[in-house]
Amino acid sequence: PEMIHELVQNGMNVARLNFSHAGSDYTYPKKLFDMVRAAKGKHEALTTVNSGEESSEKPNNVRAILVDTKGPEIRTCPLPGDEDVTHIEIGAKVVLSIDSVKDLPIPKEGDTKRHIQIDYASICKTVHVGALVLLDDGLIALEVMNIDPKGSFV
Questions:
Q1: pLDDT computed for residue 56 by the predictor
Q2: What is the pTM of this model?
C-alpha cells in the first residue's frame, strides 16, 4: 500500500494489473484494485465542492486501471522425430496441427517446412487467413495462410 500511495502522490494516473498470475480465485487482483482505488491523490482542483468552498479531505485521484489479461496459452507437443527443439527459418512454412507429428521425419537443414503439434483443438475456429499466431511470448510471428476445412491444421 505504501508504494501505491507514493506512486499516486507522484501523479500516477494509470495502474496496470497483470492477471497472468491472478490464480483461480482472483483475490490477489481484487486486493490490488482496492489499494489503487483507496490511495488518495493530490488533485487540488478537485478539493473544492460545487459551492466554491474548499474541502479538507483529499479526493482519490482520477485514475484508470488497465487490466492485462492473458490470452490462451497454446502448448506445443512432441516435435517430428520426438526432437526437443526445431529451428524455424525466416520465411519457412509452418504447419500447426492438432494431430501428432512426432512420427514425421526430422527436418533436414534447408527444409523450409516445419510441423508443430499444438494442444489447442479450436485453432481452426479461432484464427482467420491473414491473422498472426505468436509463439514464444511473441518473439516468433506466424501468418495464417491456410486453414484446414476439417479443422486439423493451419
A1: 56
A2: 0.59
